[in-house]
Design a protein that fits this description.
By secondary structure, this protein is mainly alpha-helical. The chain has 3 domains: 232 residues, no CATH class; 84 residues, no CATH class; 69 residues. It is built from 16 helices and 8 strands. The strands form 3 sheets. A 3-stranded antiparallel beta sheet has the order 1-8-7. The protein has a 3-stranded antiparallel beta sheet with strand order 3-2-6. The longest helix has 72 residues.
Amino acid sequence: MDILEFLRIKKSKKVIERDEYNLGQKIEDFLDWYLNNIVEFTHLTDWAKDEEKNKIRYFIEKMAVWYELRYPDYEIDKLLSGDYWEQDVNEVMFRNNELLKDVVEDNEMLELLNWNEFYSTNAFVRSLPVYEREYLKKPRYPKNMHINYQSPEFKFSSYRSLSLCIDNEGKVKNDDRRYLSFDTTLYIGNNEFNLVGMHIKDVLKLLKDNGLKPWTGSIYEVETIIQNYENDKYFKEELLNCILYRIILRGRQGYGAKRGYLFAKEFALNLDIPMIYGMDNSIRGIKELYNTYLKDNGNKDLMGIVDYFLEDKENPRQMMRVEDFVKSVNYWTDEEQELGQRLVNLLSIRRDMLDSSFLEREKFKEEQVRELAKREKIEQQRLQRRLARVKRNEEIRAKNRLKMNK
């Protein structure tokens, strides 16, 4: 990297406030949200509510520790940094585990065990107590919902009921069970509206926009279900994000971003998050991590924090583009070395081809010169023979003229 590129990258850095990206504070904000929006509406005592909040805190820590056990430091170096000389996790956990060999009589069985399968996500989740497994459960709408409504032109008529079959995401769907009858069409005057594929929130809006008055109790029930679903969805998303934050904090600059990247990829989280906190060019294999991120359709213009774990409370943090950070790391990865060697080999082959073609062209020119010289010699010989024949013919004519004169 030349001096102009270095100055451009240095100038592109952005200064931010230190608390703006504080991971610990993000976890505390989520726990406060959980207490105020989920636990607060239960009939628990204040002490019990605090205990519910602490359960989430302990669960976040448990998940972070589990991921450290699942992916030890040396395994992460092998997966993301290309350090294939590192220890093999199966050998450490099973084959070379002397404590385990003392317990298991059949050591051949240890050769068949695979750590990633033995301590997989499914295995870990099955080992959790029921209430903790509920934390990771995908939010769902109830299968059936009913809305009672009344048309404004029939003030004294009874309320009508709209019975809907709902999928997990809250959209109306058809139901082929013959013993149950669900509405898929709403009739308003001379108009009919197909409800299949429409979200329950849009069904409520459709009723209100067309002057149909849903019963207050029915509206409250449906809106409560919608709000509960939104809360459950936000809870699971932010819970996984907080586990990711804790993994990054526990691994710090060495392995936080690397292990966090694996977690984000496995649980379909935002891959940008670990990249924001991993910019430290003193970490071994950090360039390979960011190259992997870019290969996974990462954002080269993403702004990350430089040296997030550097304890410098007086100076503000600096931010940097991913592409600029990768350029600033002053070593070649194994892949880059391989690509560089391939380029050198390609240029060498091209040079040899050029040299070969030059020699061939010179050889062709020489052959052309020899061929021309040969043709010129043949033409000269033909000309000489022709001149000789003409000379002989002239001599014969001269002799014949002399004889005639005598």
